[in-house]
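Exam revision sheet. Question 4 asks you to relate a sequence to its structure. Input first:
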Amino acid sequence: MGFSVQDIANSIGVEAVGDTSIIVEGVTEPTLANANQIALAMDPKYATDISQGSARVAMLWQGANWQEMGLEAALLPSRPRFALSGLSVLMDKGQSFHSGIHPTAIIDETAELDHSVSVGAYSIVGAGASIGPNSIIGPQVYVGTNSKIGADCLLREGTKIGADVHIGNRFISQQNVSVGGDGFSFVTPEKSAVEEIRGSLGSDVSAKGQAWARIHSLAGVEIGDDVELGSGTCVDRGTVKPTRIGNGVKADSLVQVGHNVTIGDHCLLCAQAGVAGSTVLGDFVVLGGQSGVADNVTVGDGVIAGGGTKILSNVPAGRAVLGYPAVKMDNQVEIYKALRRLPRLMRDFDALKKSVFNGSKTK
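Answer key, structure tokens:
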């Protein structure tokens, strides 16, 4: 089923020009587009690619000369990439998961599922769990004892939700997400070598080796509304208080959130970011890919950490940081420039040292 260009424009709030009655059924890049697809050429540098495909309609940019491109109609958003968000919602055909309860699913008799819930093949819903209206539980998903899933949620293949996890509405988990596993928390009978080095920052270890004793995770996880977790992401349960993730948080694939962590609203955690135990992230924090935050650290509202940043101490609100250890981003750029100049400076220093040494010998 397709949509007219005008219907799309009305739905996502953009300007439509040309023959807006044309029906389109999908979107793709300009060189691959056929007559029934919208070509995405949202930047002038892609405009010349339109002639290599067969598109009659394209999403362009405000002021674009769509007629010169040989198009019959166009969408002209003021912010093209944001408009793509709405367009992608319209065009998404979904995963075609099984409707209703699949005969191979195992639902505990004490679980409460709204009549509109879909549960896929070989999925398990544990005792006392509840799942809200219009939620989709994909195949091979596990929902643990006394866990609660809100309305309009999507748990894709292989998602594992442990016991005592409370999740709000419109939650999305991609493949193989794990929420509610035990935290990584171990202790030794006496002060360990790790504690000694952390306190002294010394290079030698005097503490004797000891076996690690496990601290069990007794609390669960609480997740707000409109949260999305990428494939392979893990959120650990709390030790004695729940790990908390606020509303609107988006985590990429392979993100690790440790036990007792609190993450504020609308944070963005990019691929392979890690947040260690008992750390607090404020609202609207962005962690770039492969960035990390040490345990028991507070990161203020609006902080942006560039890719690969390692935050080892508290960061005040509104700061952009980069590097290992993290410093203000502009300072890190200056440090990097200085490092690049260091070999030349050392050559100059060696030449100057030789000159001074030779001059002293002649006196």
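Marking note for examiners. The longest strand covers residues 15-18.
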